[in-house]
Amino acid sequence: MDSAPPSDDGSSSSGDDYNSTSHTESFFDERDPKKTDEDEAIAKTESRVVRIVRVLVLLLLLVVTAGVSYGVFYYVSNSETKSFEEDFQDSSTKVLDAVGSFLDHSLGAVDNFMVGIVTNAEETGSEWPFVTIPNFAIRATKLLSLSQASICGFYPKVSEEERSEWEEWALANDEWVDVSLKVQREDPTYAGTNVESWYPSSSISNNDGPLPINASGPHYPAYYTSPIVPVWSAYGWDLYQSFQQEIDEMEQRRSVIVGRTLNIPKSEQHTISWIEGMVGPDLKADEPIVPFYYPIDASASSGVAVANSEQDGRVVGAIAVTMFWRELLRNILSPGSDGIVAVIGSKCQDPFTYQINGPDAVYLGSGDRHDEAYNRLAEFSFLHDLRSSGKSYTGFPLSSTYCPYWIRLYASDTMRDSHETNNPLLFTIVALSIFMFTSAVFVLYDCVSERRQKKVLSVAVKSTAVVSGLFPKVVRDRIFPTEQRDREDNGRATNTKNRLQTFLSAKDDKASPVQSSHDSPIAELFAETTVMFADIAGFTAWCSVREPTAVFSLLEALYGSFDRIAHRRGVFKVETIGDSYVAVAGLPDVRPDHALVMAKFARDCRSEMKLVTSRLGRVLGPDTAELEIRIGLNSGPVTAGVLRGDRSRFQLFGDTVNTAARMESTGIVSKIQVSENTAALLKIAGKEHWLHKREGKVAAKGKGSVQTYFVEPSNHATSEANESTSSEKKTDEKTSKLVEWNVGILTRWIQKIVAHDRARERAPATKTPQDGGGTMETVHFETGATVLEEVADVLELPAFDPNLSHNQEGGGDAQALDKEVQTQLHDFVSIIAKLYKTNSFHNFEHASHCTMSVSKLLSRIDPTYGITSDPLTQLGCIFAALIHDVDHQGVTNAQLLAENSPLVDKYKKSMAEQNSVDISWNLFMEPQFEDLRDAICSTPTDMARFRQVVVNAVMATDVLDQDLKALRNERWNKAFAEGKPLDESATTSANRKATIVIEHLIQASDVSHTMQHWYIFTKWNERLFVELYHAFKNGRSAKNPADFWYEGELSFFDNYVIPLAKKLRDCGVFGVSSDEYLSYAIKNRQEWEQCGRDVVESMIQKLETTVSKEASPKPLVDETRLASSASSSDASEQAVGSD
């Protein structure tokens, strides 16, 4: 190889190499800063990618480790669980089979014993019931041994005619008793008590002693029993008197009857006395026993399977064997097979529970005591289904109709524990250790790789720097392609209208389009459409008196019906805004008949509105059926599109939409108002006869004066003749609806009372001495000579119980009322409605309005002072609201006093309120409402408390009486005013507050119209004005309400309504409802101050029109009324007193 030429300074080529290297390094330091930044960015990006991959791999290893560990643990645990479940299935099958075999064996022994008795009777020529059993004691002992029973007895059937003869015969042939006692004493297997002496019986008897001579038959007296019971006579006790149902079923079905289980302990000391002396040490006397009643058939010796033969047999007696239930469950499983829980029961008795532990069975107690965690592992069978269907048993079958017994087997923790080991945990630890070791190896390898990667990356950065310094950007980009994505739009443009139709046809709300910077908006112009706006007239006022659930119940029912009609008509629902419903025809699918379709749709919606509100009126309360709809239509082009983003929405825009809204807002209730555009389209469609030109033009906001039309599609227009009904008929129909609604409200509260009673484990009909003694008919209320004197300073209410309160929530615990209770409740409310006079204000409709307010406030009440956990107290408030104005005379108590009404002599003061309570309560106590009273008040104590709540609540509505008002204010200050606490118990203090809450609740509800929507207020305000005006015209009032009404209402708001609303808020019980009431009260007061004079003038004009045809000696309005008003105190007195 040739040498390199020498340099000028004589240095070798190696020196040139060194200088070249130095030049390269200096280049790195002096390169372009922009290129340096790019290189560093590349390095950082690559390093970040590596770190992300490393973290992901570590996370993946952790996830895999956790997954494998869980999988191992789950697999091993599942194997143990599967083994446990299989063991349960095998053991439960074995238990059920063993019980069936036990029954076959035991009843087979009884059948053999019965056949022997019948055969002996035939051979000796004995007539039934005069039959003896030779060697009974020995035979019975063997029967007890074979059947595992503890007691057996022979009970011949004796008719009434045979009784006297049989009693003499039994007394003359009772030598068998001594023989049985001798055998019993000599029997080494008998561990019970032997009777030292016994007495003969000359008469058939029951538990109370000898039966009367005229006692009806038949009789099944005991004649042979083993062992001899050391309590009563050895024979003569009548089985039929105590177990008539079982014996009748045995005779009729010719089947073996499993009797009622006896000796179910109610306490540790409870045991049937006669069983203690008859069992051995291996059987406990305090466990359940069950008798089997086996029929004795006179033809039993005629064949092997008499029970299955078609010949009619004659039952001449019964054999009763009694055994402990535990005998059926013993000696089945092998030692170590513990934990099978057996629950035994029937539809006639509560269940009881045993646990089978190997060959033994342990009695756990009465009731179903299995662990509900093992409900999935259960085996069930009726006892009669366990009997063998083969040839092992040919006797009578077990009855499947009379209280059939069942047995249900469950697994338990005891059984599960025997199958659980530490294997799942051990295997999991091993698997976890393996994967942790693998992860550690990976981390070590990653550390080594990272060091190498840093070196490689450093070299790569330097290489990039070299390339960046040597090549232009175009070449560099080809050598090192960037990660910039290709943004060219290779997709085809999508038709906007197709995309809009796709959006509108999507069924899933989750398919809302998400806005993209490269997606064009989804919007389109539709030239031929008809838009509908529909609004419920009076809806806001209707909502102000109801609970939120009632509001949404109406809207969901109504708009759900509209949606179904829209789907049927091919109309597209756009949206609902509050109580407004917006729909459009003509999009997304274009249709030329859009105006015609929308007119029919509007007609159907109007009809559906009437149907839905009428149907819901009985549930949602008064005035629901009076709600009406106002509809407006307009036709023309609209812009439709999707506003994308969060909660994407389909929207309509354009003048057509605005005009449709104006058609609705300027329309008339129950009318369909359309624009000239829509009317023109209907004319083109040949429906000109549907159109009725509206008189005068309508001033539409933003449109000026426009001509509109009303549409009445054919076959649905209602003529005036069809709509007009007599005032009396309308009144009766409205009262009927009010009755139904009040019945519904009361029914729900009575159902809560029934559920409450059951939650307390007290039947509604129970009347115990602790509850006050006596029956409901003997309850008297003698706390005072008048109702007013019964008013209690503090109501005695039950303490708040969160468990009982929880049991009432929801409706799931509501108990259906008996038909008699429902009928009596309806009759009671109907009579109450008739007891109300036809006043303008103090009438049954006002009572229903008050009831609605009470119900609303009760639903909002916080769990305070025991009220919420006591539905009886709440029903008392509802009841008081319903009856508080019964028989109201339409005048104040002051006027009754001035007229010297008969009520004054009886009550002295608060006449109207006391009269209402007496009339309503006397009706409530009528015999015809006994079932209703028992459903409401299950004890005399409940009845007394119920009346006390009613009395206090009704008397609280007399707000004019200054003495009562002072007492209520004093109680309020004691209960809620800040300061020194009262020297009384916490219970008394809580009850005091609850008493005040109840009284203010009924007071607020009595004038609730003043704390509700302006429309509701003016409606009832006018009715009260009319009532007082008629009283004035009839000479029953000294003042004309027109003279003081405006100022009186202001005073009423300032001195009573607003302070009352503030008290509702200050007591802190009613939650947001108190704020709602106060807000409405303040708003109504402000509105009345501004336009009250106009309202009064309007009411006066209406009355003047009404009475213009009548001669009136007194003017309706004093000439100086507007110049000088009555004093505020007089006005306040009149306004408050009228309520």
Question: How are the elements arranged and paired?
Answer:
Layout: H1 13-30, H2 33-124, H3 136-147, E1 151-156, H4 163-172, H5 176-186, E2 205-206, E3 209-210, E4 224-226, H6 239-242, H7 244-253, E5 257-258, H8 273-276, E6 289-297, E7 315-324, H9 326-329, E8 338-346, E9 349-357, E10 360-366, E11 378-382, E12 405-410, H10 413-417, H11 423-470, H12 473-479, H13 496-505, E13 523-537, H14 539-543, H15 548-569, E14 572-577, E15 580-585, H16 594-620, E16 628-643, E17 649-653, H17 655-665, E18 672-674, H18 676-684, E19 691-693, E20 698-700, E21 704-706, E22 709-711, H19 720-723, H20 727-759, H21 802-808, H22 819-835, H23 844-860, H24 871-883, H25 893-898, H26 902-907, H27 911-924, H28 930-936, H29 940-955, H30 962-976, H31 986-1006, H32 1014-1033, H33 1045-1066, H34 1072-1107, H35 1128-1138
Parallel strand pairs: 16-18
Antiparallel strand pairs: 1-4, 1-7, 2-3, 5-6, 6-7, 8-9, 8-12, 9-10, 11-12, 13-15, 13-16, 14-15, 16-17, 18-22, 19-22, 20-21
